[in-house]
Amino acid sequence: MSKISEAVTALQNGRFVLIHDDDNREDEIDMVVSAENILPQHVSVMRKDAGGLICTAVSKEISIKLGLPYMYDILKIFGQSNKSISLITKNTSPYGDKPSFSITLNHVNTYTGITDYDRSLTISSLAKICRNLNMEVEDNTIALEKFQNSFITPGHVPILIASKGLLNERMGHTEMSIFLTRIANITNVSTICEMLDPVNYKALSYKDACKYAQDRNIVMLDSKDLMTYANDINNK
Question: What is the value of pTM for the model shown?
Answer without folding.
Answer: 0.94
